[in-house]
C-alpha cells in the first residue's frame, strides 16, 4: 500500500517564498552557501554567504521548513558556521561599528 503524505499548503508556500528569497540572494551575490541553525520556538535561522562575501539571513518557522527551502533553492549547506565557510564573510566598517563597536569602546559620546 502506498503511503500518502499530507501536504500543508501554507507550509509549502512558505518554503517556496524562502527558496525564492535564497535564490535572489544567490543571484545578487554570484552564488551562495548557507547554514541552518535551530533558534528555539521561533524556528530556524538560514544564514547565507554569497560568493562575493556578502551575507544575510532569513528566519523560517521551523527547522524542517528551513531545510526544505535551502534544498529547493539548490545551495550548498554547511553543518556549522565555522572554518572556511565563516572566513568567506566580508565585513565592513558598518558591521564593525554595529557588532563590535560597543564592546571595544564604540563611538565616543563627546
Quick one: how many beta strands?
4
Rounded Rg: 17 Å
Describe the largest sheet: 4 strands, mixed
Spatial order of the strands forming the largest sheet: 3-2-1-4
Return the structural class. alpha+beta
What low-confidence regions span 5 or more consecutive residues with pLDDT below 50? none
Helix and strand sequence: HEEEHEHH
> Roughly what is the average pLDDT, rounded to an integer?
86
Helix content, binned percent: 40-55%
Counting copies of identical and different chains, the oligomeric state is: single chain
- Beta-sheet strand percentage? 15-25%
Number of helices: 4
Q: How widely separated are the two ends?
A: 75 Å
Shape: globular
Please tell me about this protein's structure.
By secondary structure, the chain is α+β, with helices and mostly antiparallel strands. The protein contains 4 helices and 4 strands; from the N terminus they run H-E-E-E-H-E-H-H. The chain has helices at residues 9-28, 63-73, 83-87, 93-100; strands spanning 32-38, 44-50, 55-60, 76-78. A hairpin with a 4-residue loop joins strand 2 (44-50) and strand 3 (55-60). The longest helix has 20 residues, at 9-28.
Task: List key phrases describing it.
110 residues; alpha+beta; 4 helices; 4 strands; 40% helix
SSE arrangement:
Blueprint: H1 9-28, E1 32-38, E2 44-50, E3 55-60, H2 63-73, E4 76-78, H3 83-87, H4 93-100
Concise account of the structure shown:
With 110 residues, the chain is of the alpha+beta class. Helix content is 40%, strand content 21%.
Amino acid at each position: 500500500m502506498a503511503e500518502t503524505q499530507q501536504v500543508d499548503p501554507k507550509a509549502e508556500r512558505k518554503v517556496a517564498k524562502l527558496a525564492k528569497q535564497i535564490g535572489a540572494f544567490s543571484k545578487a551575490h554570484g552564488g551562495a552557501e548557507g547554514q541552518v541553525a535551530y533558534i528555539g520556538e521561533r524556528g530556524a535561522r538560514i544564514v547565507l554567504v554569497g560568493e562575493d562575501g556578502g551575507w544575510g539571513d532569513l528566519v523560517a518557522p521551523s527547522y524542517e521548513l528551513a531545510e526544505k527551502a535551502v534544498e529547493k533553492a539548490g545551495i550548498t549547506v554547511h553543518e556549522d558556521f565555522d572554518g572556511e565557510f565563516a572566513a568567506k564573510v566580508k565585513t565592513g566598517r558598518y558591521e564593525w561599528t554595529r557588532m563590535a563597536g560597543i564592546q571595544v569602546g564604540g563611538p565616543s559620546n563627546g
